[in-house]
């Protein structure tokens, strides 16, 4: 299996699964503007996933398109981070997760946009622009929730404490990462840690939230090992395509 | 060739064409065969496929027998590619046109100065942003305090 194919699945799957989770808020947002905002962010993420997975299918060369990869792979074939598959939780959980993910994505996509692979660089540059306003939106909410009422502060801190151990997977490195770095397609995962920590500390400081010191979990979504939550998400995401194979409208 | 594509309107903002929008990046004509290079605006823009189909149909109506619409990603689309006439068409349609795209990173947007978008109806600068997200990926929602009119703004990106 091509290393670049595997790396593109990671880029695509992170955004597909988080986009699917965020889309669960559609019709349930706390206020109308926020409902529209989360649905817009989800749409961007699913669109980014479609571009990365289309490219993955081309690189693989086995005739699979983005739909085939999204709807016809099983749970163990997904390469997303475990962080993105966790249930959406309350609004604070959704926004804190979006913030932690977008901050990491910011530095990651900046690196991928420098790839010599022209399509990959272009898709990453476009996704990076969109990610900047996702990051602005999520970081603004983190500050608003952290500095809001006792209840909003408590919920934001609790979400942060729960999410923190999963963030270790952002910076994990295996053969696929090392191959992507060596080929000039990706920045070193470990190298993203310092700028991410600085950005997170800056925003959490403004939000009067405490940066957790809990150690990371042993997580391995990149190897296709997932929490029990991914299967349920996929069941909902894939049911229509699998019930009506080849359907068009 | 580009004259034909000026008939193809953006399905979500039918005031301007795909050429106005700056998404047609080039075309190669070979007799009655043509390859058109198109770049998407936003990654998740649901209009992309409709646009590709409409481009092919418009060219076929004008006698091309084989139309290939190719998607290109580099360089990524920017609202700076919307031409000046199209900006005026957007304003007349009730959508405030984008200013210059600034892609620097701004983190928390609370309390800081936000750039004022002039009202497309009365021209007043006494407006404020209600939401950075609107009815489509490319628009934000604003309100004019002078004429009390809510309006959309084509985001600068």
Quick summary:
The complex is a heterodimer of chains A (249) and B (157). Chain A is mostly helical.
Order of helices and strands of chain A: HHHHHHHHHH
Distance between termini of chain B? 28 Å
Largest sheet of chain A: none
> What is the β-strand count of chain A?
0
Strand content of chain B: 25-35%
Question: Cα-atom Rg of chain A, whole angstroms?
Answer: 18 Å
- Total beta strands of chain B: 9
Shape of chain A: globular
Explain this structure:
The complex is a heterodimer of chains A (249) and B (157). Helices cover 65% and strands 0% of the residues of chain A. Chain A is built from ten helices and no strands. Chain A is globular, with a radius of gyration of 18 Å. Chain B has helices at residues 2-5, 48-61, 84-93, and strands spanning 9-10, 13-17, 24-30, 33-38, 66-71, 95-96, 127-131, 139-144, 150-154. Chain B is elongated. The model of chain B has no long low-confidence stretch (mean pLDDT 92). The chains are: A mainly alpha (249), B alpha/beta (157). Chain A binds chain B through residues 33, 36-37, 40-41, 43-48, 50-51, 106, 118-119, 121-123, 125-127, 129-130, 132-133, 135-137, 139-140, 142-144, 199, 202-203, 206, and chain B through 40, 42-46, 72-77, 103, 105-110, 130-135, 137, 141, 157.
Question: What are its keywords?
Answer:
heterodimer, A: 249 residues, globular, B: 157 residues, alpha/beta, four-stranded mixed β-sheet, 18% helix, 28% strand
Question: Which helices and strands, and how do they pair?
Answer:
The complex is a heterodimer of chains A (249) and B (157).
Chain A: H1 3-23, H2 32-60, H3 66-71, H4 82-85, H5 91-112, H6 118-146, H7 150-163, H8 175-182, H9 193-206, H10 228-243
Helix pairs in contact in A: 1-2, 1-8, 2-6, 5-6, 5-7, 5-9
Chain B: H1 2-5, E1 9-10, E2 13-17, E3 24-30, E4 33-38, H2 48-61, E5 66-71, H3 84-93, E6 95-96, E7 127-131, E8 139-144, E9 150-154
Parallel strand pairs in B: 4-5, 6-9
Antiparallel strand pairs in B: 1-2, 3-4, 7-8, 8-9
């Amino acid at each position: 299996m091509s290393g670049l194919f595997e790396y593109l699945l990671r880029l695509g799957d992170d955004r597909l699964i988080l986009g699917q989770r965020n889309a669960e808020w559609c019709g349930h947002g706390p206020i109308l503007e926020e409902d529209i905002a989360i649905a817009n962010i989800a749409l961007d993420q699913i669109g980014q996933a479609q571009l990365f997975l289309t490219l993955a299918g081309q690189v693989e060369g086995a005739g699979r398109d983005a739909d085939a990869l999204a709807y016809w792979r099983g749970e163990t074939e997904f390469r997303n981070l475990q962080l993105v598959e966790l249930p959406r939780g309350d609004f604070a959980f959704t926004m804190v997760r979006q913030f932690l993910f977008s901050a990491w994505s910011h530095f990651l996509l900046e690196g991928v946009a420098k790839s010599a692979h022209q399509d990959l660089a272009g898709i990453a540059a476009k996704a990076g622009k969109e990610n900047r306003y996702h990051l602005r939106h999520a970081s603004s909410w983190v500050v608003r929730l952290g500095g809001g009422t006792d209840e909003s502060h408590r919920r934001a801190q609790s979400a942060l404490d729960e999410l923190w151990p999963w963030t270790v997977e952002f910076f994990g490195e295996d053969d696929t990462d090392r191959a992507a770095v060596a080929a000039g397609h990706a920045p070193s995962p470990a190298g993203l840690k310092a700028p991410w920590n600085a950005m997170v500390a800056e925003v959490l400081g403004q939000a009067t939230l405490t940066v957790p010191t809990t150690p990371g979990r042993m997580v391995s979504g990149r190897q296709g090992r997932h929490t029990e939550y991914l299967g349920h998400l996929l069941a909902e995401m894939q049911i229509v395509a699998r019930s009506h194979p080849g359907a068009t409208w | 060739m580009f004259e034909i594509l000026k008939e193809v309107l953006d399905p979500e903002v039918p005031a301007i064409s795909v050429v106005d929008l700056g998404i047609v990046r080039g075309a190669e004509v070979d007799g009655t065969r043509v390859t058109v290079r198109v770049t998407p605006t936003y990654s998740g823009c649901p209009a992309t496929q409709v646009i590709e189909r409409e481009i092919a149909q418009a060219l076929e109506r004008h006698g091309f027998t084989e139309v290939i619409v190719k998607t290109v990603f580099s360089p990524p689309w920017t609202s700076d590619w919307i031409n000046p006439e199209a900006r005026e068409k957007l304003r007349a349609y009730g959508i405030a046109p984008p200013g210059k795209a600034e892609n620097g990173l701004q983190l928390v947007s609370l309390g800081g100065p936000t750039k004022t978008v002039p009202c497309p109806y009365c021209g007043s600068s006494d407006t404020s942003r209600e939401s950075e997200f609107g009815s489509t990926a490319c628009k934000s929602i604003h309100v004019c305090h002078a004429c009390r009119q809510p309006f959309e703004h084509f985001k600068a990106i």
